[in-house]
Fold this sequence. Notes:
The chain is of the alpha+beta class and 302 residues long.
Amino acid sequence: MDEDDAYDFDERRSVLLESDATDALIAGKPGRETEVFVKGIAAEASEKDVHAALRECGAESGATGFELVTDRTTGTHRGYAFARYDSRESAANAVAAIAKAECEVKKMKITASVKPSKYRVMVTGLRKDATREEIVEALRSRGAGLEFFALSRPRSAKKNAENAVVESGDHNGGRGWASFYNEACAERFMKNMAANREEKLPVADDKDKRGLVCEFVGPRPQKKEIEIKTLHVTEMNEANATDQGLREAFERYGTILGTQIMEKDRTRGWVFYDSAESVEKALAECEPVEGAAEASTAPPSR
């Protein structure tokens, strides 16, 4: 794979424009994953008490704001708060610091987690000859705030009209993942896509009558979250329900040590990889393949 190809499939390279900084949903607004949800705050604790506890356990570094949520009718707080930080790294470090120090407020242990948000959108129905740059440019026309974008990799081979296996010649797998600066930008993008559905973007696949289909998806799995090396595949057809069929469908994601087809239900099978990274890659990047529509990390069974 050459450098240009690597660029197309790299989700870590930011595509956020400098001009986006002045956008109403970005300027002065917190980015995604920069807010921390703190819960378990004792009823008798004050905002000052919470600040002191966070400072003592080292969770105030990078903090830019704090809100102890109160009940408007009673004036008392609800036992939780939101802390804003200047970066995703600062927010993640604060969560880790609170957990490590077993931080307490008024002798009551508090817990913290990064506030979840909808910021990642899966886009399907893309032209398979389109480059990442072309797609990013097209998606930007639906609103500022696109920060990262990655394409699914193309299938290395496919069958032609004569049912013979040939090189696919595709540049991508027909889908991609768009990550936005924050939830507000992602929601605006989704609304604009729906409102302008009749106006087809130039990167849409003409063969797909549905046009571009966009839906919110969860964050890309982190390596530490996936420890299992087995991929569970369901909804297989007869052509894929063989050792060779599974290998051909999933070998592009890593080295396969073996496969298993369920004896009583041959629509289900398992692919055993040599590393958890291969499972992560398959779950995060694979497009639906014929006869292997669903994939998860369920352990093998009979």
